[in-house]
Amino acid sequence: MSGKAATAQAAQETVEIAHEISTLLNTGLDRDTLSILIGLCESGVNPEALAAVVKELNREAQGLH
């Protein structure tokens, strides 16, 4: 397996594991969203700040329904 293929496989496995955990915790986050959030964390975004933003966006979205 090439380096790029191995990296892509590892990233996919990471998203799958995160999605399983997310499902167990009933977060309502889909695979695409989790992938974006993981990428942001890997890019240096503060995970706690990111979690706060996601929570706030979910609260606002609930208010629209």
Give a summary of the structure in a few sentences.
The protein is an all-alpha fold. The chain is built from three helices and no strands. It has helices at 3-24, 31-42, 47-64.
How many helices? The count is 3
Biggest sheet descriptor: none
Which class of secondary structure composition applies to the elements?
A: mainly alpha
| Secondary-structure element order, N to C | HHH
The tally of beta strands, per DSSP, is: 0
Distance between the termini: 47 Å
Give the rounded overall mean pLDDT: 92
Beta-sheet strand percentage?
under 5%
Task: Specify Rg, calculated over alpha carbons.
Answer: 14 Å
Low-confidence stretches: none
- The shape, in one word, is elongated
Quaternary state, please? single chain
Helix content: over 70%
